[in-house]
Amino acid sequence: IAPEKNDFIRSIIREDLASGKHAKLVTRFPPEPNGYLHIGHVKSICLNFGVAQEFGGVCNLRFDDTNPTAEKQDFVDSIKSDVEWLGFHWDGEVRYASGYFEQLHAWAVQLIEQGDAYVDLQTLEQIRENRGGFGKAGVNSPWREASVADNLERFSDMKAGKYADGEAVLRAKIDMTHPNMNMRDPIIYRVMHAHHHQTGDEWCIYPMYDFAHPLSDAFEGITHSLCTLEFEDHRPFYDWVVEKVGFANPPHQYEFSRLNLDHTLTSKRKLKRLVEMGVVSGWDDPRMPTVAGMRRRGYTAEGLRDFCERIGITKADGVVDFRQLEFSVRASLENTAARAMAVLRPLKVTISNFEEAVAKADTLKKDTVKAELDGDVLWLSQPKHPSLDLGERRIPFTKTIYIDESDFEVNPPAGYKRLSPENNEIRLRNSYVLKVDECKTDETGKVIELIASIDEKTLGNNPEGRKVKGVIHWVSASHGVDAIVRLYQHLLLEDDEIDHNAELHEKDRLDADTDADTLWIKQHLNPNSLTTYHAVVEPSLREAAAGERFQFERESYFVADALEHNSELPVFNQIVSLKDSFKP
Ligand code: ATP
Ligand code: MG
Ligand code: MG
Fold it and tell me: Which residues form the Glutamyl/glutaminyl-tRNA synthetase class Ib catalytic domain (predicted)?
């Protein structure tokens, strides 16, 4: 049972509703459509949509699309489908900051008229220099004291396309000596002759995020604007701008700590690099921490929501153990995934007494095993799940079968409970007790085939006069189905090397160093993050639907790949291991 949802944000909301400060809670999830959503965004989604649900409010989905060169319709579409897949519903229509461009422009004009904004014609270089730094006051722009009329005319010229990119900006007029750099006359509009995925070529000036965001919140009647801690020092400007425009009951911004996960990048920019470098197959590669990747990996929406609930909401920065995420995903699969048998590293076993033994299968007590002989196949029926009513599956048992190579050791290590020359008897899962009589090797000494016999009395019965330790899975060699089975490890090694803080001020890092990112990724990439097996699986798996999840007994949880799986050549991705010593 997940811990009771209670955190500082929920306390604030509870108080604000109780005191009547707000009649109804309104939150928003405000992604920029410049990439795919990742696990960090899931935390924000679960919080914003979660509190809306819990407190009888609503949550808007708003695209913060003020940076047209980085944004695309493709990202808008994927974000919408990811939010829906996670099980959340936004209020009414999807919203766009770009849908408010007209209104935002009018508010910018209002600020100029009030003497709260001015057009600066310094170069961007000069603006940067004159901003000063920590402990160093900024210098007023020579354009700062221009008249309202001149500013209105220049802003109108900016809008009319009379300036080239970078030649003019609109700035809020606050204080060039303010200790908070975000208050030193921040830029609120810039010239950018760029096509926008929503507004086309209508605009050549675009508002800055810090201007558009608070005003979009206020316009939508957002009550609690929840964001991550790196926006804490943007809050003074947030409050300044909604006050100057004159909202009566303005939204308030609250910050919580972002999710950092070990072995995991939660920066869209670096995830994009991974895709561009071709080290993954795309944004939806099952190793990617994107919602699209995790979905293809077979993670459940329920597991992701449970994870977010367990990590909770605080102001404390930290790095969450990846196994915590796996714990939640595993818990969501335990009572839902059908069982099946798949042999990843096939070792051929020929059962010398097969015909004589299975001929007597009909005469055996069959309350635990249903068996039906048809020619040279003994069809065994088993429930798809030990406790849930998911129906039955038919498993063919034949003269040649495959077991996993790792279930037979010529020189077993201490404590080995599977097959070896000394311990040569084992239970075949759902079937007979098998005894190895002979082991065939190739010229290098590698075991290539086992010759074995089965105890005809052990179908659904314990062997007489002895105990058999161990159960192994198997698949018919003649009726099994070839399949691609993919096992995963972390995409990145050495998690302590990931500087999660370096991701924080990405919005400011328009000049991100691609070469440095590439080098970093190369140095930290796990060369073994993907292992592909040519496996043999039980034939019932031909009928698996793309996206269907299974527990391959004694292996892992797997999902039929959403894109590549088909009944001719099934393809399965490992979701998560069956067990872990980790306890949340
Ligand atoms: P990135 O840094 O990967 O580009 P971003 O912060 O720019 O992500 P946005 O699309 O602007 O992404 O963010 C949408 C919302 O998701 C914001 O409110 C942001 O605070 C939140 N968010 C982004 N990353 C995380 C994270 N790691 N943990 C929690 N919330 C996050
Ligand atoms: Mg961003
Ligand atoms: Mg960011």
Answer: 24-319
Domains of the chain: 8-256 (3.40.50.620), 342-472 (2.40.240.10)
**How far apart are alpha carbons 414 and 158 in whole angstroms?**
78
Residue (of 57, 36, 369, 27) closest to 216 by Cα position: 27
Measured distance CA(25)–CA(223) in Å, rounded: 6
ipTM value for the complex: 0.96
Beta strand spans in 102-210 (E): 117-120, 169-172, 187-191, 205-207
Q: At what angle do helices 101-113 and 148-160 cross, to 10 degrees?
A: 160
For 17: left if phi > 0, alpha if psi spans -120 to 50, otherwise beta; the answer is alpha
User: Which residues does a 6 A CB cutoff place in the pocket of ligand 1?
Assistant: 30-32, 40-41, 43-44, 227-228, 258-259, 266-268, 503, 506
Q: What residues are labeled active site?
A: 32, 258, 268
**Running DSSP on this structure, what letter comes out for residue 313?**
-
Q: Whose CA is nearest to atom 26 of ligand 1?
A: 40
pLDDT tens-place string over residues 147-180: 999 999 999 999 999 999 999 999 999 999 999 9
CB 314 within 8 A of CB 258: no
Alpha-carbon span 562 to 547, nearest angstrom: 5
Ligand 2 center–CA 506 separation, angstroms: 7
Which atom of ligand 1 is the closest one to the Cα of 32? Answer: 10
Q: How confident is the model at residue 479 (pLDDT cuts 50, 70, 90)?
A: very high
- Paired with 252 in beta bridges are 224
**Residue with CA nearest ligand 1 atom 16:** 41
Taking the C-alpha atoms of residue 488 and residue 404, their distance in angstroms, rounded to an integer, is 19
Query: Is the distance from CB of 244 to CB of 114 less than 8 angstroms?
Result: yes
Q: Which residues contact 454 (CB under 8 A, 6 or more apart)?
A: 351, 353, 354, 357, 428, 431, 432, 433, 434, 435
Model confidence over 443-475: pLDDT tens digits? 999 999 999 999 999 998 899 999 998 999 999
